[in-house]
Amino acid sequence: MASGERLGRTDGSGPGFFLVLEGPEGAGKTTQARAVADYLRAAGRRVVLTREPGGTRLGDRLRDLLLAPVGGEGCAILPETEALLYAAARAEHVRRVVRPALAVGAVVVCDRFVDSSLAYQGGGQGLDLETLRGVQAFATGGLTPDLRVLLDLPVERGLARRLAEPDSVNRIDAAGVAFHRRVLAAYHALVAADPDGWAVVGADRPPEDVAADVRAAVASRLPVGGVAEDVASGGDRAR
Ligand code: TMP
Questions:
Q1: Which residue has a Cα nearest atom 15 of ligand 1?
Q2: pLDDT computed for residue 225 by the predictor
Q3: What is the pTM of this model?
Q4: From CA 66, how far away is CA 61, in angstroms rounded?
Q5: How far apart are CA 10 and CA 158, in angstroms?
Q6: Which of 112, 121, 167, 180 for mutating ligand 1's site (highest number of atoms within 8 Å of CB)?
Q7: 8 Å CB contact between 110 and 98
Q8: Ligand 1 close to Cβ of residue 172 (< 6 A)
Q9: Rg, Å, the chain Cα set
Q10: Which of 80, 143, 146, 227 is least enclosed, having the fewest CB within 10 Å?
């Protein structure tokens, strides 16, 4: 949109922008989500930075259940149950956090969303993708991101990064290399099926370089520069 004017989401969920960061373990999503949120705020955007599973009180409790390592605090969870628990956290998150923020024109920066379930529970665990998509549609009411950024890096590199910080190792980090290869392959298949919906950014680089590419991808879809100029000149279009 060369004019710098955004006309609002076409699904009726409001004038905001829904940006999702996706990727395998150790891709640096959390760091990049913070960086892009800071960038958008500095440009005068109202930003809600959030994550899945989580973002609500119930979602955070479900996160604890889902990610606690088995043998520690965690209990074994069947793949079907896991998919439903992620979807349950998502249903809360979409209705209590994401849609209200989009409705008032905020940019929602979300660390993981539906595609994590398709990649991990579908690709990784082997659950039927069409069934999973139906569950997602129920959980989200059909909400889709305006842009997903895949932070892409080889599985071994990501796992090595995570294992270098043992405190942050969860049950999914411990699932094995073959599982994580299936997850990454599923992400690549999701991108191939909808190239316009995604930007792929190589994440095996210094965080500043990755952040620059994430900013460029976002700025190509959202008139960030235009908003920054507006702020400098009085900000009547800033939200
Ligand atoms: P992370 O946010 O630190 O990456 O941890 C979240 C973990 O949860 C990560 O290993 C991926 C996993 N996950 C799923 O398996 N399915 C999902 O739908 C979501 C949101 C996360």
A1: 120
A2: 59
A3: 0.89
A4: 9
A5: 36
A6: 112
A7: yes
A8: yes
A9: 18
A10: 80
Tell how far the Cα of 112 is from the centroid of ligand 1, in angstroms.
7
| Residue nearest atom 1 in ligand 1 by C-alpha distance | 25
Q: Residue 115 contacts by C-beta under 8 Å, 6 or more apart in sequence?
A: 20, 22, 148, 187, 190
Please give the single-letter amino acid code of residue 4: G
Residues 21/29, Cβ–Cβ less than 8 Å: yes
Cα gap 217→121, rounded to integer Å: 27
Is residue 24 in contact with ligand 1, taking CB distance under 6 Å? no
| Residue entry with tokens 């109202």 | 46
Strands (E), 83-227: 107-111, 147-152, 198-202
Residue nearest to atom 21 of ligand 1 (CA): 116
Residue at 49: amino acid letter: L
Q: Please give the number of the atom of ligand 1 that sits closest to the Cα of 124.
A: 15
Q: How far apart, in whole angstroms, are the C-alpha atoms of residue 190 and residue 122?
A: 11
Residue 216 amino acid letter: A
Note the pLDDT tens digit of each residue in 117-169: 999 999 999 999 999 999 999 999 999 999 999 999 999 999 888 888 877 67
**Class of the CATH-defined domain 14-219:** alpha beta
CA–CA–CA angle 129, 50, 154 (5° rounding): 55
Domain boundaries, the chain: 14-219
